[in-house]
Amino acid sequence: MGDKAGAVFYQQNVPASYPVAGRIERMKSFHEDLMVKPGKKVRLSELDPNETHGWSRADADEELERLRQKMYGLQYKLHAESKRSLLIVLQATDTGGKDGTIRNVMSGLNPQGCRVASFKVPSSEELAHDFLWRVHRACPAKGEIGIFNRSHYGDVLVVRVHNIVPKAVWSKRYEQINSFEKILAENGIRILKFFLHISKEEQAERLRARIEDPERHWKVSEADFRERQFWDDYTEAHEVVLSKCSTEWAPWYVIPANRKWFRNLAVAGIVVEELESMDLQFSKSTMDISKIVIE
Amino acid sequence: MGDKAGAVFYQQNVPASYPVAGRIERMKSFHEDLMVKPGKKVRLSELDPNETHGWSRADADEELERLRQKMYGLQYKLHAESKRSLLIVLQATDTGGKDGTIRNVMSGLNPQGCRVASFKVPSSEELAHDFLWRVHRACPAKGEIGIFNRSHYGDVLVVRVHNIVPKAVWSKRYEQINSFEKILAENGIRILKFFLHISKEEQAERLRARIEDPERHWKVSEADFRERQFWDDYTEAHEVVLSKCSTEWAPWYVIPANRKWFRNLAVAGIVVEELESMDLQFSKSTMDISKIVIE
User: Fold this and answer.
1) Distance from CA of A18 to the nearest CA of B (A)
2) What's CA B159's distance to the chain center, in Å?
3) Does A64 reach chain B within 8 Å, measured CB to CB?
4) To pair with B65 at 20 to 30 A between CA atoms, which of A56, A222, B7, B173?
């Protein structure tokens, strides 16, 4: 890495001869193909988790590297503008690849200006508030990219599957979530929500891989196996979320995620497209630059 | 990036033929050469901000890339162990390169598990508490790398230079800081504190560069020029901090920082050495792995 500002560095280091045009068209179609149109009823069984939309792994890896560099430059401008922010919500079943997506797609970002929030079992303090309280506190500030590793959607997923609160309570939350996200969007937060879609067989494969590799034992938890028993209930709960909560201001994307390399590519592509569509601008100085004298 | 766990990926991608031995010896001497020995009285005028310890820029850039990859792998193990954490404190005068160090040294890290806290003018809520209250809240959790962009040292730097609180108050803070940091260290937080040392001429150069480049005008603030008038007072305040608060449990490093590429290399080298010295271990599963059956 050089010592110039990030955006400049990366612009200089993307080869001019890179065959970009065809790729960008393809990424745009990801954006369109993978988005859940507001109001559409989603059936996950109709969406193939092995889908790769014609991409080969080699092409995808190369494109991902280019997208990571673009993302870094765009993050720099988001920070330099400091008027808006981006919120990325990741949901998936256990082993669905939330951690891996963050590691592979977002590791090139500047950690200053990128805030990851993991939502686990709520603390007693959090439970003493409404379900959106802890979520609101974790939202990205102006100029930041926020990443939610799980989110408020847990309150209509695990909570619904296990009846942790009565139906009369959780059934009102879909509308509450839509209203909450609209408030965020109207206050300058762009929201992208990714559901990482894997098959039940792929989950078994991944759990097995963790068991067989001693260096991954730390990731093996009882909850993964317990929740696997409720696969069908989770599928239904996810379908309701995707059908009720994909809105114009906060769309859901269903990412075919059996192939990790395609998952990474699709998420990176959608994030970059979104940041590009924001038309980010360097903000001006609060001083009259022409009058500055350095002593 | 591949889809395997981060540590594995990077280990595979560091060329085996890389001439490591000589370099590592050099990095160890950075660690030793740049640390302020506890109890030593520091005079910044005796430390050359242009120093590069025999490194050429080309060698340094290559080594930095290697160190960034190592750091990524070590961060993964720190997270997998989840018993201890690392806190990196950055202090410098304006334009000293705090942001640039984070961007250039830490951008390869996984943002999940890396938390940057910037300490600006305290809010009214923060001022209603003792000066370490907001700092304690921002400390890294187990398994995390925390980065302080400015820190509690502001309370004996800008606060001392401008007498924001009476001397009777700030003069007690050096001891309080040492005690506070000792508590953190005894509870599993490794602490590295970097003072980025630039010359007054270099600061003028950097301010000029910002003024001349419209894409950097957003970084130009009145405070930079105002505080520059107090250069000598800040030098003295920094010397007191470095002399009184470099301890065995939380040492200060004075990083020659006029050359950004050397600054990046030195910080990366010290961070990697520190993480390596922790002998990080993958933690075990809470389950009896041999009894697991996947249905």
Assistant:
1) 19
2) 21
3) yes
4) A56
Contact B214 A109 (CB under 8 A): no
Contact B69, B10 (CB under 8 A): yes
CA distance A191 to B148: 28
Model confidence over B116-142: pLDDT tens digits?
999 999 999 999 999 999 999 999 999
Nearest CB to B260 within list A3, A6, A295: A3
d(CA A205, CA A187): 42
Its pTM stands at 0.89
Q: ipTM value, please give it.
A: 0.85
The bridge status of strand A85-92 relative to strand A145-149 is parallel
Cα of A171 to nearest chain B Cα, Å: 31
Distance of alpha carbon B156 from alpha carbon A130, whole angstroms: 40
Answer yes or no: is B261 within a domain.
yes
Size of interface A-B (CB pairs under 8 A): 165
How many structural domains comprise chain B?
A: 1
- Could you tell me where the DSSP H helices lie in B138-221? 158-161, 167-170, 173-186, 200-212
CATH code of residue A107: 3.40.50.300
A147 contacts chain B (CB < 8 A): yes
Domain span at residue A217 reads 4-283
Residue B194, helix vs strand vs coil: strand
